[in-house]
Design brief:
The protein has about 270 residues and is mainly beta. The chain folds into two domains: about 5-130, Sandwich (Immunoglobulin-like); about 140-265, no CATH class. It contains three helices and 17 strands. The strands form four sheets. It has a six-stranded antiparallel beta sheet. The protein has a five-stranded mixed beta sheet with strand order 3-9-8-5-6, with no helix packed on it. Strand 12 (about 160-165) and strand 13 (about 170-175) form a beta hairpin. The protein is elongated. The model is unreliable at about 1-20 (pLDDT under 50).
Amino acid sequence: MKKLALALVCFASLAFFASCVKEGQPTIQVINEAGYAQDGATINVDEEVIFGFVVASSPVTNKELSTLIVKIDDDAELTDTINLAGKTEYRYEGSITYLSREIIDNSIITAIVTDAAGQSATASINLNINQEQQLLASTFDWSRKGLTFESAEEMAKVGLDWPGNYRADVYVTIKPLANCTMYIIEDGNEFNNITTIAQKENYFSNLIENGTAAAQYKEISAFHGGTYNTMLAVIDAQGDYHLVHFEKATVESVSAGTLIHLLGQLK
């Protein structure tokens, strides 16, 4: 689903010209400033889009404004209605993030201003949604020294926990956090094969439908270092998707105990 955050700003004195306005209609324009989406723009998924409109009473009738309705793709849940009674000018700003789980080719943001005489004017922003955004991999170095978990915050960002190492089997134990789901992919080469957001979304859709979630991952030795080629696919508590590719582990004895580093890449 789309995630929408609409922010209203106080009315300010505005001076602008609107094209194709019939006599007696209020005026409306898309905000044309740096950082604001313009009609025909191409938008990447999972990126916040800032947009806005400026409206004013008809220069002919000077009737007070009545309402401003801003809607996205005619979705009732993504419609904002502003009472403009008593105002003759207004500036509206909002933001939207198109989530990568949603396959969209385009989206339309429409604003309709109406004045006290019942006259209306409309402006719209047509956006092209880029579903083929390339996935950028980032490296990670998670570590644990003895009983000290040094990477809890970093691992929590991808829905994972490293509760400890157990001498009985000398393997690192990694588990999904509460309300998170983890899948173990033995063939880590899958990580390199998933190069776009759309591919990632489709990959997780297939896992959700056909895969088997795992309660824990215990294949990395806590006894000695080594190379690995395993991927974890994780759905965090917010429903976001993460790919974790383990490539190497280093193990050394230090004064506070055993220091273990897990190294690899994230998408």
